Amino acid sequence: MKKLLCTLVLAATLATALAGCGAKFTCDLCNEEKSGKQYKEEVFGQEVIYCADCYEDLQNLGDLFD
Quick one: which of 15, 29, 49, 66 is 20 to 30 A from 42 by CA? Predict the structure, then answer.
């Protein structure tokens, strides 16, 4: 029973760790290779991909003009 419990905990930990790893992409704003959540927008007909950090910065910049 103890071995089964340890196996289940290890499997859950591994699944949680792997779920956070997304495919790597290059942010079009900071030009850094990132993994995780990516945001896509279309600007003047071009698709722009940016990372969560740049997204947050853009949101904060937009709040200044509200």
Answer: 66
Number of domains in the chain: 1
pLDDT one-digit tens code per residue, 46-62: 999 999 999 999 899 88
In degrees and rounded to multiples of 5, residue 11 shows phi and psi of -65, -40
- Residue 45 φ/ψ region, left for φ over 0, alpha for ψ in the -120 to 50 degree band, beta for the rest: left
Residue 14 lies in a domain: no
Q: What is the distance between the alpha carbons of residues 59 and 64, in angstroms, rounded to a whole number?
A: 9
- Token readout for 46 is 């071009």
16 found inside a domain:
no
* Predicted TM-score of the model (pTM): 0.58
